[in-house]
Amino acid sequence: MTVMENISALNTPLLQVDGLTKRYGARIGCADVSFDLWPGEVLGIVGESGSGKSTLLSCLAGHQTPDLGRVRYEDRDVLAMAETERRRLSRTDWAYVHQNPRDWLRMGVSAGGNVGERLMAIGGRHYGQIRETATDWLGRVEIASDRIDDRPSAFSGGMQQRLQIARNLVTSPRLVFMDEPTGGLDVSVQARLLDLLRGLVRDLGLSVIIVTHDLAVVRLLAHRLMVMKSGRVVEQGLTDQVLDDPQHAYTQLLVSSVLQV
Amino acid sequence: MTDQSYNFAYLDEQTKRMIRRAILKGIAVPGYQVPFASREMPMPYGWGTGGVQVTAACLVPEDRLKVIDQGADDTTNAVSIRKFFARTAGVATTERTDEATVIQTRHRIPETPLTPDQILVYQVPIPEPLRFLEPRESETRKMHELEEYGLMHVKLYEDIARHGQIATSYAYPVRVEGRYVMDPSPIPKFDNPKLSGCPAIQLFGAGREQRIYALPPWTEVVSLDFDDHPFEASKAAHDCDLCGAGHSYLDEVITDDQGTRMFVCSDTDFCAGRREAGHQGRLWASQPEAAE
Asked: Could you say which residues form the signal peptide (chain B) (predicted)?
């Protein structure tokens, strides 16, 4: 299914965020953030360190509880959900790709086991099928199938990140949260990873919220862009529009700070 | 110090009361690990401090106690715990499974079927089946709470990926009444089927980890497995060399420097009982004194 078909097939937003606020004591994590995410859409969130991007993302994914506001996923209130249901959602319909794969992979478990974990968590009980799916997914993220029984500790950083992506996407989620997926990788590996992500997003019709401080990443992946500063959204719009014709002073600064090679 | 300076069964009544409450809770929620205030016992951790406390809380003067260690009645652990209770509780002791009312065991379930008037007490080193996969106690508790047991299958997956079969041969994880995943203590997986539908009360005590859990009689206990790699209660492919039993769990014993070996029942009482009944194994028939 293409992105356009997906969008026309569903007339309601996948994720609705309304007035989301998270405070750390007197400080603001993020304040009054509202947006709709439509099926098949990729939303980029950019901003400098400490601008509240990651706070926002972890609030959306239910890792932190916001102080104010509403998050609705397919007309279900995420914040009012029982934890069982939210965790089930985060194993099936959602995925979360973290910046540092080493913290989120099971380093003592083989690559196949890492990919298969979500399948087993939702009731997969057939070894042959789990292994087949794992092999298939390793192939999709360009990891050779003979590495399936190797542990992630034997993988390079780029491979670990791709393994993390495979591990997350194996249950065919609809909504993917990505927190700096290319952070800590060198540029050529970044480029391949971005290429891979773009292909996966298009092929699977994923909705993605991607947090990054790298404008090149959002330029390649995101349809829409939100710029955050000091916990607030200062500008949002189509990616090309925001990057090519920035209105807010901070966005102008951000865009002009990119090194032109 | 005289023996009279101990309360009956060593522990004071308040401590026994606390342990009994934990046991009752454990029986009410089969497979759930109940925290309890484990006491220091006059033996090192790892020697059955948890089991001893549970036994002490269960014993009444009319009880007849049997203690087994890896199936044997005459090994250090079994002998010292049996003496301990003979001295501090003055209860009768026995080596016969069918005569005992309370059986404390380390790493085996007796071959002789248990009866409804018996209590089987297990010594447990690490009660948390998810521990080696997830080191955080807060997280494993949450996983039990939310029934997130996918990780347990990751362990079995790793076994098959690495060894071509489920290589876990003891402490094989089980699911109790379709709810809690439980570590059955390091019993061989040969014994796992005996956990299910057992008429006796089964109590598990972990002293160092301060947990008690239980299986009430006739509880359904299922060993975890994959559809295409089903659970198999494995044992050595031999008969007992002393009593000839082909259906009991066997120990392999090296008998000389040339690598000669024999297989004997790990349950000594079961083996002796069969020999008394006239059964003879390969080595018993030829030279009974050598096997003694």
From this structure: none
